[in-house]
Amino acid sequence: MTLEGILAQLAAMIVALVVAPLLMGWVNAWRAILQNRRPPSLLLPFHMLRKLFIKESVVAHDATALFRIAPYIVFGCMLLAAMIIPTLSTNLPMAPAADAIALVGLFALARLFISLAAMDIGTSFGTLGARREMLFGFLAEPAFLMVLFTVSLIASSTSLATIVSSLAHRELAILPSLAFAGVAFTMVSLAENARVPVDNPATHLELTMIHEALILEYSGRHLALMEWAAALKLFAYSCAGLAIFFPWGVAQANDHVALLWALPVLLVKLAVGGFLLAVIETILAKMRIFRVPEFLATAFMLGVLALLVHLLLGA
Amino acid sequence: MMAPLAGQVVNLFAAVLLLIAFAMLSQRRIVALINLFALQGAALVGSTATVAFATGQKHLYYSAAITLVLKVLILPWLLHRLIRRLNVKWDIETLINIPTMMLVGILLVIFAFNLALPISEFSQSIARGTLGIALACVLLSFLMMITRSKAVPQVIGFLSMENGLFFAATSATYGMPMVVELGIALDVLVGMVILGVFLFQIREQFDSLDIHHLEKLRED
Hints:
heterodimer, A: mainly alpha, 11 helices, B: mainly alpha, globular
């Protein structure tokens, strides 16, 4: 572990913390523009976080300690996930701490705590949201794992940093398995981040909501942490997708010039990705909740196909 | 240099074929099903033309052209006309349990891959790896014909099975002799016409295109 590595890791963490709410703001602004509304400021998520951190945090009478510590655990999981994904450079001291499979585990841990906290209060909305979240999580996780297995097989390693650097250095070849895995990953990310075909992030009181139902009882700094964690999750998923499927521009170990370039390249990639996400959310309608298992089964099928195609064709 | 790239392109088309086979398995709308069938034909044309280009086999160009005319243009047009006449254009079939069907499909693909692995080792073709995919496409079309209860999707399943067989022929052995290919093409066309007439008869008899009506014996 070198000083340089620690600096790169710190930079990655600060970038994650700052860029994640910005990405939220960017997606929301584009959604507004595409729906012929006047876009809110890009900095709106920051203002909201500041406001929530200042406000008093009200906790229900029946809440146990679990309800209070859950936001910190969720936020910690998401921050760690954002740190082990090679966003700027593949030279990350934290990377050996967790590989691609542990990344899925981190997301699962956060999901577990957010669901437990939602059930802790005992409101029907929270319980409903928790059950839906667990159902979709249980369907999305295998699909996500299949995608990660496919890229791990291609790079012959489960470490994210190794995967990204080997994918970036491979000679250009047409890989149908990567294309399948990419589509499957997009579907899983839409479901996991509560985006439109599965859940509507703009809703706050509807029977069909999932993510908002989970954090309905939170207020003040707890809510701020939850919102920030959601933004970090979107950032982590976007960065993972960009790093795996469009790995160009991520700095390799001990490459100082590339490290300077990595941030603007990442911002451009995220800007394009966020715009595409807004387009997807605008042209698709939210599907019925009982159609979601079909949607996620399709993602799982694509993931398995990617794996099989890679094994059979070696491509 | 040429052969690896051509092999990759054929692999890509093979993957697309497999993907379309799965999409057909889970598609509820008949119109979309026909469009998927046309798309499958187009992928077949692409892969056949690529193999022809990479190996310099002249007759494969002809079979690609026959496929283009027959499976991308004529058969989808016939099917579109058929469903318009039968007035089932906007029919939506109730498919139960798509996730389970997908899992069964995945199992079929694994089975086909395992089955094809020893066979493809004997082949000298540039695209021998795709034999498993061709077999998987055939099996998936079988599955589609088994699970559908309406007549038109069954016909489409039958036609897409022929697509899988054709792909197996081009990928494993650079295609069949021209006479055989012409014969099959004509067979499919005639079969389609006969099935079209047959569908009208079924509807006249039972007022529905549901195949389950054919299972009962009637004495009149």
